Batch of 4 targets.
Target 1
Amino acid sequence: MTDPHYLRLLAREYPNADAAASEIINLNAILCLPKGTEYFFSDLHGESEAFGYLLNSASGITRDKIEWLFQKSVSLREREELANLVYAPEQVLSQKDTGDDSYCEWCEITIYRLVQVCKTVASKYTRSKVRKKMPETFAYVIDELLHADTEDTKEQYYGEIIHSITRTGMAEKFIITISRLIRQCSIDMLHIIGDIFDRGPHADLVMDELMGFHDVDIEWGNHDVSWMGAATGNLALVANVVRLGISYNNFDLLEDGYGINLRALSMFAAEVYQDDPCTIFTPHILDENTYDPVDIPLAAKMHKAIAIIQFKLEGQLIARHPEYQMEDRVLLDKIDFQNGTVTIGETTYPLTDRLFPTVSPEHPLELTPAEEELIHTLALSFSHSEKLRKHIRFLYSHGSMYKCVNSNLLYHGCILMTEDGEFDTVSIGDKTLSGKEYLDYIDTQVRRAYFAAPGSEEQRNASDFLWYLWCGPKSPLFGKSKMAAFERYFILEPETHTEARNPYYNLIEQRETCEKILREFGLDPAHSHIVNGHVPVKIRQGESPIKAGGLLFIIDGGISKAYQKQTGIGGYTLIYNSHHLALAQHKPYELAKQDFSKNAPTMQIVEIMPRRLTVGDTDNGKQVAQQIEELTELLKAYRNGEIKEK
Ligand SMILES: O=P(O)(O)OC[C@H]1O[C@](O)(COP(=O)(O)O)[C@@H](O)[C@@H]1O
Ligand SMILES: [Mn+2]
């Protein structure tokens, strides 16, 4: 029974029985439409070009539609061109000879074909939903073209519209617009399961793309919270993102993308480490910088300078938070500067680099005055970056620790577990949290770091907690026993580099574990799945992204170039449409872009739906059904006179 007060509010929008009844009819029609296509990504790691391509090609969804429509009537070469046009219209158009006699004819035929493709992809949506996706300029024309039927008179009308588009010199603009609409209709919802940032060259462009997308949610990854923490002024995280950025040669992103001024750091590093080659700090060069080509030996010095600052700041942060129980992660104070060794636990190891001009053996965690000034200058640069502010805001407004959507549970890292398959517990104050409750608690803290009064104790603690989420042993975003950054720089012995994964990663091979997790989040294991990112699936070593007989998918397949050696592929995407759930395995983008048609993704249908799913089967459908119920009550209230019609 709907609250009468609410019914009165509803009556303002639907002032009489006819209005309520016609909305009920509309909503019922929506429930019968096929469910829209959901598209899942994870671990984009700044690979904006590869992402753009995967997004625009929708893992071949559009190509399939083109095949279905034109296989018998259009040559393969032209079908390829049409698909490429939908993915990257500007690029294809720029290669056309506009002076050619047949150019106008090509435009008209192309527009005609694009309209057919658009009709097919838009057929899943109501007219009004498609209209909302249309840019104003061509909204009326596209609407007419999509809904003109093919009787003779209409055919003429149709031809006339296309003709006048080319005659008025608007063909290119129209092609770009309708291609975009096709792309937008191919994907109804986009889910990004964390780690947009770090390693690859342009997380900023990935964020721009996401912000322009009509329906997107983000499940935060450990790299994302690290940037969120840097933006909220956490100095250890400022150092961390700068260190990772330099170590992957992401100068374009830092300086040009976000306007982070690295001049002070480069001057400091050049001076302090002038005679030190800083060899072990040589950055990985996966991509060249366009705007900020950097001198590699200088970048190595900057890398070392910021790494040392980070280790000091982390030591201070750990001291501020005994509850994190991470004292064993402070290693600068375990160095024997005279002998050039470090002692971890019972074992003493020689250091690969013994030059620490800024570390005082008596107070190893203290920043020098110059380091202090430097890190504050950098932090200021982060908080002043308008672009970064917009992107972080979006991570907050569209992001969360996890999401349950259409019977799928999405999160980046893991749900902490003990060896014997129980949810691991964490003590926070006088509470003991685990599973969903712990994730909810974290979600609140992450928001507090951004929204609490700047500089308040509450805000500073929450912001330090973002650092814990980056690398703490009980961080479900990290899911490993320790972050061995210090060891990987300074110690050769590989056993010190091991970061033990949480038992979760073995346990998810069993159905039982995944069922338990799904139930914890209120989902029925018989109809639900978990989608997870974070750990690259080592296909070369026989690992599979499909766990527990298809209850869980790990879709970190190496869109990030840094991981392609391990995974052997260019990443996974998951597609959930009205017919099935499918896993697309992509070729590395560098290879794919040499010839897209020969390097199409391999699709594996992992689950076929028992019948074609409709909007009525989705979460959104449940809301629509609820609205129908409320409107039906309103209608009743109008009819029995409880509420007066207007
Ligand atoms: O190889 P890099 O870039 O130094 O990064 C290694 C670090 O990244 C991590 O793998 C975390 O990043 P991911 O979330 O991408 O796995 C740490 O466990 C590890 O210490
Ligand atoms: Mn991760």
Target 2
Amino acid sequence: MANFGDYQLQIYLQGMLQGTTPEITTDLARLESQAAGKLSAEAMGYIVPSAGSGATARANQAAFERWRLVPRMLRGSTERDLSCTILGTAMPAPVLVAPIGVQTLAHPDGELATARAADALGLTYTHSTQASHAIEEIEARNKWFQLYYPTDPDVCLSFLQRAKAAGYAVLVVTLDTGTIGWRPADLDRGFLPFLKGEGLANYFSDPVFQSKLAKPIAEDPGAAVMQWAQMFPHVGLHWDDLSFLRDNWDGPIVLKGILHVEDAKLAAEHGVDGVIVSNHGGRQVDGAIAALDALPPIAEAVGEQLTVLFDSGVRTGADAAKALALGAKAVLLGRPLLYGLALAGQPGVDHVLRCFLADLDLTLALTSHANHRELNRDSVVRG
Ligand SMILES: Cc1cc2nc3c(=O)[nH]c(=O)nc-3n(C[C@H](O)[C@H](O)[C@H](O)COP(=O)(O)O)c2cc1C
Ligand SMILES: CCCCC(=O)C(=O)O
């Protein structure tokens, strides 16, 4: 059996024997500056910055810095087993592709490339409601669908039915983006890709959405965009609205954007299957708690009843190991994948995923763990 960490030896050997070095850095925290050379100022402004002053994004990184792994010795295994089954989906490692909208901003192949790269490694790809490619275009064995619950229930139902028909296994309902946060980098440029018609593929391909328009989209795209702008903001969404999803989706449901332990308990009471502890990478509520700081109490309160997943600020194998030790069953990778996509399309995403998995695998090997399930609260200390 091969270990994900073997990618490290492969890179060394290519350097030593063929004189080639990776075109994309292996330091995932540095990807952002490398990708800056490839992306327009508008795309960088949309992808990189966080809401407001960026305090929450900084808090995410600071929280990872505060927690420290405490390595064990002499109990490891030559072969690590990172495989797991999360909500019925078999995974080779506890790592998923986070839902990220409008990926053609980063590369013309957009979500098609990201999904293919994930699929080639057997990883689960999560497709955003705000994607640049439609639900049906994604070819991946393991795919989850992320819902931004539209205010129009007919369109919502249509999304659920399309996702089910196209083979998506799990519904991820994002709760932290009832509307778009205060994002100065975009505001100062007056730039929002959706208002240019980008990232609306799921809406524009939807027959129910189309039926609500006075004219076909090709004849009046501006009106179609404004129709989306009416349906997207949903700050009035309530716990009771989840029953509509429960009634119309027969697979697992996961709530993304949970940070308060009471909301995690309410999630359990409302019969969902999992939560993603996340602050949306700091893109929504500036000043919000670091996602990693929210994780331990939530895992403690509902970890037995619900599948607890995590994202926001995960950049290294050590970050993933810390989140797993603090109670997450798996982590979702966000911006680094988009930087890999910007730099080289599908091979760029593949490289980023392989680096991340190798780093996690080597972290387990070096801390004497045979698999990630052995990580627990004793594996970390708060510095
Ligand atoms: C450009 C961009 C677009 C995103 N689009 C979505 C989306 O459509 N739906 C969603 O639930 N989360 C979306 N997210 C949030 C990610 O799923 C994830 O929570 C976040 O990227 C994690 O933070 P990190 O990138 O710092 O690791 C987006 C993030 C970025 C950077
Ligand atoms: C309308 C917002 C959808 C994309 C998103 O979630 C993000 O940019 O963070």
Target 3
Amino acid sequence: MAEPLLRVDSLVRRYGGIAATDNLSMEVIPGELHAIIGPNGAGKTTLISQLTGQVMPNSGTIYFAGRDVTSLPSYTRSRLGLARSFQITSLLKDFSAIDNVALAAQAHDGHSFRFWGNARKERHLRDTARAALERVGLGQRADIVVSQLSHGEQRELELAVALATKPQLLLLDEPMAGLGVTESARMVALLKELRKEVTIVLVEHDMEAVFALADRITVLVYGRVIACDVPDAIRKHEEVKRAYLGEQHAVTRHD
Ligand SMILES: Nc1ncnc2c1ncn2[C@@H]1O[C@H](COP(=O)(O)OP(=O)(O)OP(=O)(O)O)[C@@H](O)[C@H]1O
């Protein structure tokens, strides 16, 4: 197996009496799309937040690209190539799609947001932003104000914002949430393209999407890894079926 791009070793994060992350270890290898699934409250978001540096663990270590990043702040991890897709709520609604992406590119370049005016003018920021918008299929919508974009388009814009920082690893927390059938299918098609270019960790409740996209799946229950394997093995895994998938989540094949 290739040297992991991300390695999490014995991570623990407690909230009062609850271990949201309970001695969790896992690896993400370069080029894979690694899905993380688990029932509500299993600790998926807490894990992602620790990977990005928004939440600090009580103990354990996070290695990214061979480096111990456990105590590094979010912006330093972002510089190293670790990006979390911004949530819709963090998009600037009165700004155009391209302004939002250019600002992210500018912030990543190390400039302060207060010089946002420059992001409108600087050629290389506009070019980076336009390329990111093209990659997510929003090339024709670049000048539309965010509030005029559909929910699905705003989700795509979140991805473009993350891509503008040129990540090595993209962390996606429920990109399908709130999407209709057509929009979800579009997002799956988009992620199928993006996975060719960037390593992805995907937290998602939509099992159809997960099984259509993932190279490997880690299953969390009560902050612990109960299984980590390829989709076919996860589908057949007795403990996973018992603990999570159950009968209402009969998982079908979408190859
Ligand atoms: N800031 C916090 N303060 C207190 N408890 C928290 C906090 N964040 C998470 N928890 C608790 O940690 C556990 C894991 O929560 P987390 O949101 O990470 O789970 P999740 O798998 O992402 O859930 P969901 O699928 O519902 O988004 C839950 O019991 C939750 O109540």
Target 4
Amino acid sequence: MEERKILVVEDSPVVLKVLHHLLSQNPIFVPVLCACYEDAEKKLKEAGNTHFAAIVDLNLPDAENGEIVDLILSYQIPCVVLTGNFDDRLRLSLLNKGVLDYITKDSRYSFNHAIKVVERLSKNQGLKVLVAEDSVVSRQFIKLLLEQYCFTVIEAENGQEALAKLEADTDIRMLIADYNMPLVNGYDLVRMLRYNARFQDLVILGLSAEGDSALSAKFIKAGANDFLKKPFHHEEFHCRVVHSLEAQEMLETIRDLANIDPLTKLKNRRCLFSEGETFFRHAKGNAALAMLDLDNFKQINDTYGHIVGDSLLEALGQVIRDAFPGMLAYRFGGEEFCVLAEVSGPHMLEVVNDFLDGLRRKEFTEAKIALTCSVGLCSQSADSLEASIREADRNLYEAKRLGRDRVVADF
Ligand SMILES: Nc1nc2c(ncn2[C@@H]2O[C@H](COP(=O)(O)OP(=O)(O)OP(=O)(O)O)[C@@H](O)[C@H]2O)c(=O)[nH]1
């Protein structure tokens, strides 16, 4: 991953050390430390635009009145202020200038907070947000706020255009939708999106003009993650955007933990049984299922040890993902895998044979370990998951009996 230089300007050696330590915990951050304004000015002149973000103290020995903020912002570097004194007016003026956050050094958690802001920025890079709002002024304002936080912004003037853009671009992560929009209003847009399984993970923030207190509940009942009344303060806007995103990320992490095998990064057996039945219902007979089982893996474990065995399974996960693109691949258990696809038996047979050929040519780890695999294929009785697994297993058993490193199909 690309490294990101974080400029830290702070006269206290202790704080500098703490920030250096915290930033170094994240391998993509490279802290660039400066003890005074002059030092920072020099670093910026040398390589100003290469800094990803800055964390600065307001009171520096050679610039006591926050001059460092203007310097950082003149290079268009996102800036987080860390300071000893809390002053509401100063805070507001800094936020209005474009400072991302104003954090008082009132506890050791303040430093973690500053790092969290920078980490969030880094995660936001490349993350697409669609702003659906008919008022140009309001749309541009929201765009500006989002761009300050490194989001990539896409715009739509009405609900219909928003829907078309969401359907065309599956990478859009978040939608900010105003209520009052021509053609399709924000509320109907949210309802339409949530009826579609494809948009279940889209983070949605509803927006409306002040006055209609029933709207917030209406938006949330329709499936929005949160709601904001205009006019809003940009600090509140950022907090709500970030909270909704982080809640969704947490949900996806939990879902991955339940469904993904940590070693091979393939979906697990539990996921096969929850997805498989639906898959067979939709496939209506045009489905093929392959059971893959590594050959003599016990012997490999006995010879090289379980840790090497684990690294082989990890590598095999990637080989399987590459060999069966667009298909559903699962770790069935131990050294056994299952691949499902809405394809004909002969097509699956061809893909499996390519996989076996590729595997024969590979060598794993520094010890150049060779792996082979036996495969049982089922496509004839492909009308239920369980029947297909049973048939594929019978064929797999036959492949082992015939000498391994081969595929046996039911046609
Ligand atoms: N390292 C490692 N080994 C595993 C894991 N899961 C299963 N195994 C090993 O896989 C081996 C499977 O052994 P067997 O069922 O006898 O099958 P085999 O040796 O592959 O022989 P055939 O299937 O008949 O070709 C056992 O030694 C298991 O301990 C795992 O997560 N990590």
